[in-house]
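fyi for ur records
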Amino acid sequence: MATIQKLIKAGSSVAVVIPKSLLGKHSAGAPISIEKDTSPNTFRVRVLPKKKNTLSAREKHVLSLTDSFVKRYRTDLKRLKDA
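which gave:
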């Protein structure tokens, strides 16, 4: 299904508004891929599959250490933040 939309200025970039009816189950913030097609004036936009938030054993260990550190020194960290 094709639709005609305008490019709009968004800061120092440009954006295109995609009608909600075309998005289906996707919403704002979904990761996308944009490719310049070989045809002139053609771009290909694909919604990427959601990334599973799987952490490696090392990342889980670092997360555990960080949580322990924050729990242990929470009051000191708050004082440092306010100093």
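Helices lie at 20-23, 57-72, 74-82. thats all i got for now
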